[in-house]
Amino acid sequence: MSRHSPRPESKRRRLMRTLLIAIPVAVVFTVSCNTVATRMVNREDKQVPRNADGVMIGAEARELGNPSSQNAALFVHGFAGAGTNFKRLPEEFAKAGWYVRVMRLPGHGTSPYDLEKTTAGELENAVVFAASELKAKHARVVLVGHSMGGALSTIAAAKVNIDGLILGGAYFGVTYRWYYVMPPEVWTRLSSHFIRWVYKGKLFTQINDESQLPHILSYTWLPTKGSVTLHEIGVRANDLDVLAGVRCPVLMFHSHGDVAASPKAAQRAFRFMRNESNEIVWVDRSNHHVFWDYDCDLILEQSTAFIKSIDGREPITNEQTLPSSFLYDKIVPKLPTIRAAPDRDDEHGVPLPDVKVPGQ
């Protein structure tokens, strides 16, 4: 061995010395970042306009239309969002004679501190309870969900005798980018142990028509624990028994350019919802906030046509339940309709992705 070569012991000492310096620096840096972020969250939280009940202006739960109508619609907003995220769709449903309830999900519309403490179970139970309550009073019930609200509505539709399901930019997974290296859900879970808050603001509100940004209500800061909860809801919504349990007609709007909710994951989930009248419409002029984006008029037109078709159907009852195991026994030959928005070159849609079914 050359006398100039460092001994193994000295290498170990050097590594230990580096770690003894790096670890405290990393801890101090993380604590400092969290402290600064918490101060900014507190400052933002104090400046948000609220009503007498402490709810952010525009995030209030709403009821529209005739409570005695045979038909009812429940609108379920997305992660950190509010009922205003549906633009004028609730009002149009009410004009069509439907009773409309626009939810405010637990932990939403108040403070990001409330979202930080809200569990996936609380969110799921709130939607299932609201849907069950409506079904007990109205013959037909349609759920309309955006983003995380789409995942929650899917879960509720598998548990309650829902008559129709409209999904806009529904969350069944995060859109993957090559520079993530690992799946974003993994990054979220790892970072939640060290980073408390993530800035969202208008800068990261995913919409192509930026003139609509002022109308989209959301928290400015997001708790990373809330993002972990979002991932858990996505896992529940992707359960094959849940997807197979959605036996009502489904109308899904999604964009191939959605940079938040994965279009591939949404298409995969859609394939397992086996009602023969299901339809997915690709709205590729839009991004994630499809109800406010460039295709909003198309979505409004097709959604109102959808509820008119539901109005003429017999209400779904327990007797119409399909066995949850049917999905594993065989693939139904007839696939749901997949088509693109009228202004796309590819007007016949896109091929379905390969999906592995348990037992095959």
Overview of the molecule:
It is a single chain. This protein is an alpha/beta fold and 360 residues long. It folds into two domains: 39 residues; 279 residues, Rossmann fold, CATH 3.40.50. The chain has an eight-stranded mixed beta sheet with strand order 1-3-2-4-5-8-9-10, with helices on both faces. β2, α2 and β3 form a beta-alpha-beta unit. α5 crosses α7. The protein starts with 7 loop residues before the first helix and ends in a 20-residue tail after the last strand. The C terminus is likely disordered.
Helix-strand sequence? HEEHEHHEHEHEEHHEHEHHE
Instruction: Name the strands of the widest sheet in spatial order.
Output: 1-3-2-4-5-8-9-10
Number of strands: 10
CATH class of the largest domain: Alpha Beta
Largest β sheet strand count, sense and barrel closure: 8 strands, mixed
Looking at the overall shape, the CATH architecture of the largest domain is: 3-Layer(aba) Sandwich
Mean pLDDT comes to: 84
Shape label: globular
Q: C-alpha Rg, in Å?
A: 23 Å
Overall number of structural domains: 2
Low-confidence stretches: 319-335, 342-360
